[in-house]
Amino acid sequence: MYLNKTTVRGFLRRTALLLSLFVLLSALGGCTGNVGITTGIVSTTGTSSATAAKITSASSSATTAVSTTTAATAVTTTTTLSAQQLQELALREMISAMTVREKVGQLFVAAVSGTALSEQDRAVLTECAVGNVILFGENVGTLTQLAELNRTLRKTIREACGIDPFISIDQEGGIVERIKDAATAPKASVVGRTGEPALAGQLGKLQGAQLYTLGINLNFAPVADVNTNPDNPVIGSRSYGSDADNVADFVAAYTDGLQASLVLACAKHFPGHGDTSVDSHYGLPLVAYDRARLDKVELTPFRAAIDAGTAMIMVGHILYPALGAENVPASLSPAVVTDVLREELGYDGLVITDSLVMGAVTDGWTVEEACVMAMQAGADLLCVPLKGDALREICGAVLDAVMTGEIREERVDESLYRILKAKMEFGVFEAPPADADVPYQTEYAALLAEIKEKAAK
Fold first, then answer.
1. Is 269 a catalytic residue?
2. The one catalytic residue among 256, 275, 354, 380
3. What is the pLDDT of residue 340?
4. CA angle 76, 80, 84 (to 5 degrees)
5. Are 282 and 362 in contact (CB under 8 A)?
6. What is the pTM (predicted TM-score) of this model?
7. 355 secondary structure, DSSP code
């Protein structure tokens, strides 16, 4: 089999944990020994983890013993390394082996055209080393077609940069869902009316299993907005309801269920889009409440999502003066992303922007400017659903910003660490090929019927 440079580089990254171990042993004074390690990337004993998502909970307690004997003393010593330390070493090794172009490519969540990967899209994904994609309705025909597209996307991106992609979708349910023949769901408001968060958990788990089988590993759900404005033009039935505590319970339950099926959840639209009168697709909304109100209502479901271990939070394009986002939307504001979300709420998962081609952004900034500002604000992933030459230009502009120091490479590395960590923990490197034969069809249909019945009471 012919191995090109990218294929070899990808193999080296998948064995980065083993290399990291050698580096660590050398740092410990030339220690040698037999070590058994199990992670989401590689096992030096030949055992690969099939449940990489469990690493997060296990990493704090799992350890690896390295036994060494010194010739001078013939005394055996044991160095204990936590799985978390080994994981970090592996990730740092992967990052150090990447070019700046490859690093920048991992920041993007881009779009492709149609139901099959075109040569133009393939060329741009490869040239820009784009690390992640988002699917829309135009990409979905039959389940067989969708599985084939996702297999092709994964293969193309892996060959281009040596790292498997996030393949993402908006499959909230109700008025926002791209797939019609599987993984469908009621409106969140309908699920909320059941009064049973456990049903949201079951829904997330079964929906996640179907998405995962189809090759999708990231769902931009749940909506964590509290629908307190009946005239809201964009959220409405996408929210679980108007009571912040109830919404929080449903958000947490759905997050648990979805992620149990190895599909990343994404709570959106931080700090909250539920009490706006402007649709951020077309203009820049303002939430003018004071901080006390925000703590009581808007931020409550996001705290619950963080406590539930959500892998990702999407930041919306909304002005929030009480949080320091007076002149720029929250998505581009260091005060919101870094000061509030990261430092105050203690969130260390992935932060993604809402689409940076929405009117709330493009009315005031170019997409290139918004990408730079979002990175400076502390975002990890840039949702830029563009294709072809437009995507090529944006990727080039962000690469230039890193090369000139407008975006510090260390800032990129921080995001890259989180991206690769999530891919490792959710088994993205090890996922089976996409398949159209989705599981739990009977159970899923029964659950949807139960939700409909209980919501009607």
1. no
2. 354
3. 98
4. 160
5. no
6. 0.85
7. P
